[in-house]
């Protein structure tokens, strides 16, 4: 039974996998998507990354989920149809859809190409569209999206390894740019070497920045230095290592989404350094004010990026051969993948091969 009647402008039969309750277990799900409107692009989904926020949504860990939930917002595919007023895309183009599919288009944030900060941002999965319909994500065979929120994927960017850039990539690219941590010769720390952290290292290196990976796990050292090419590695639980690096960094991108102390990280910053949080711990972190005052340091945050900047990021990635390190999986492996993701057992991003393995 389709989730919404194929009346009311939702005639496009769709098929995907959805969570029905807080267990977060996904299973096959038939539903429908809206007709391709005059400014819409219809997309055959080929690959979709699995983000940690998908895990939060399917288990209602943020308290905002409305079931059924079809997750997925790192979506790449091929255009199969365009509305009569679409100007940017044509049938056959390779495209992507990230974390959002709508915004008000009239507020200051929207006017400044910061749709991600619009109070009426419509998220790709688990949101409410303008017509009141629930938004279903990319763990499905087709998508329909307003062309404004669709990203062009350059020909030389692999679709599977490029998919996670639509969330993980822009989440670290945007703060590097906005906080001025993109100047060659700067020294930037990256806290956490997961889905976000590993692409942060790649983007920072491509910008000509000296990168230090900061991790609780000494086991990540070889990976950080030899595989990802970071310049140095710090074990955050080693007081001697941390002390030796005090006051050496222009900025830090903190990707960790669990509880952790900020005081040692603030100590690593130079005077006027910037600690930027992009991970989202479920509980508030303790913020020591004294070192901020005495060093004129900043603790800031950042969330994905606007559509214009997301396109800029994808183009930069293609030019510099930046992709995520991915494990491509079939659709029917997704529940095992989600269990593994909850234990951080992935290097570094799962990507579902929707096009070849999603079967009704």
TrEMBL record:
Its cofactor is Zn(2+). Transmembrane segments: none annotated. GO terms for molecular function: oxidoreductase activity, acting on the CH-OH group of donors, NAD or NADP as acceptor; zinc ion binding. Residues 24-352 form the Enoyl reductase (ER) domain. Keywords: Metal-binding, Oxidoreductase, Zinc. Pfam families: ADH_N, ADH_zinc_N. CDD domains: CAD1. It comes from the Eukaryota. Signal peptide: none annotated. One of its GO terms (biological process) is lignin biosynthetic process. Belongs to the zinc-containing alcohol dehydrogenase family. This is Enoyl reductase (ER) domain-containing protein.
């Amino acid at each position: 039974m389709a989730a919404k009647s194929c009346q009311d402008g939702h005639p496009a039969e769709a098929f995907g996998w959805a969570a029905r309750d807080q267990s977060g277990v996904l299973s096959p799900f038939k539903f429908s998507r809206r007709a391709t409107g005059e400014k819409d692009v219809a997309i055959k989904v080929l690959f979709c990354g699995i983000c940690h926020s998908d895990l939060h949504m399917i288990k209602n860990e943020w308290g905002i989920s409305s079931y059924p939930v079809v997750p997925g917002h790192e979506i790449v595919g091929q255009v199969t149809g365009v509305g009569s007023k679409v100007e940017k895309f044509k049938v056959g183009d390779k495209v992507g859809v990230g974390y959002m599919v709508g915004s008000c288009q009239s507020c200051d944030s929207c006017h400044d190409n910061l749709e991600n900060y619009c109070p009426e941002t419509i998220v790709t999965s688990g949101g409410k569209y303008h017509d009141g319909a629930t938004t279903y994500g990319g763990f499905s065979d087709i998508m329909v999206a307003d062309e404004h929120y669709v990203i062009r994927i350059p020909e030389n960017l692999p679709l599977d390894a490029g998919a996670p850039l639509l969330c993980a990539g822009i989440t670290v690219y945007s703060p590097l740019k906005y906080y001025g941590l993109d100047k060659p010769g700067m020294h930037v720390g990256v806290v956490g070497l997961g889905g976000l952290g590993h692409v942060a290292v790649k983007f920072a290196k491509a910008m000509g920045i000296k990168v230090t990976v900061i991790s609780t796990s000494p086991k990540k050292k070889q990976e950080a230095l030899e595989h990802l090419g970071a310049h140095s590695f710090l074990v955050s639980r080693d007081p001697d290592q941390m002390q030796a690096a005090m006051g050496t960094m222009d900025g830090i991108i903190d990707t960790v989404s669990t509880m952790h102390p900020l005081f040692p990280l603030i100590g690593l910053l130079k005077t006027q350094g910037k600690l930027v949080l992009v991970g989202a711990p479920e509980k508030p972190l303790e913020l020591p004010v004294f070192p901020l005052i005495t060093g004129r340091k900043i603790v800031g945050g950042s969330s994905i990026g606007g559509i214009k900047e997301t396109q800029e990021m994808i183009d930069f990635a293609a030019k510099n051969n930046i992709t995520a390190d991915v494990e491509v999986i079939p659709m029917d492996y997704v529940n095992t993948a989600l269990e593994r993701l909850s234990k951080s057992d992935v290097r570094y991003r799962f990507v579902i091969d929707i096009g070849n393995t999603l079967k009704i």
